[in-house]
Amino acid sequence: MNLTKADIAWQGIDHVALATPDLETTIHFYCDVLGMQAGEIFQARDGKTRHCFIKPGNTPAQGLHFWEVPDAQLPPSA
Fold first, then answer.
1. How far is residue 33 from each of residues 27, 29, 62, measured CA to CA in Å?
2. Which pLDDT band holds residue 78 (cuts at 50, 70, 90)?
3. Which neighbouring-strand residues pair with 56?
4. Which tens digits make up the pLDDT trace of 45-72?
5. 8 touches 61 (CB < 8 A)
6. How far apart are the first and last CA of the chain?
7. CA gap 58, 68 in Å, rounded
8. Cα separations (Å) of 61 from 16, 50, 67, 78?
9. DSSP letters of the chain?
């Protein structure tokens, strides 16, 4: 099957997973600065990390899914 862009009817994205070295700072930025809404903070199954969904308002999508990865490398600032 050869699909083209016209064949794909996008309806949104359920969620995007991202890594952050500091979950609290990430939640502060997205919620207190950008006005988004954070859900509950969950412990990962291995108990070593935490994760949280952050949504841009009242939407059925889960939004941004942040995993706390203490040694995650951030790109250099411009």
1. 9, 5, 19
2. low
3. none
4. 777 889 999 998 887 778 899 999 988 8
5. no
6. 43
7. 24
8. 10, 20, 17, 32
9. ----GGG------SEEEEEES-HHHHHHIIIIIT--EE---EE-TTSS-EEEEEESSS-SS-EEEEEE-TTPPPPPP-
Contact indicator for 70, 62 with CB cutoff of 8 Å = no
* Assigned token pair, 49: 């990390």
- Whether the per-residue pLDDT at 9 is higher than 80: the answer is no
**Lowest pLDDT segment from 8-12, 20-24, 30-34:** 8-12
Q: How far is CA 53 from CA 6, 8, 21, 65, 73, in A?
A: 31, 27, 15, 4, 20
Judge whether 30 and 54 are in contact, CB under 8 Å: yes
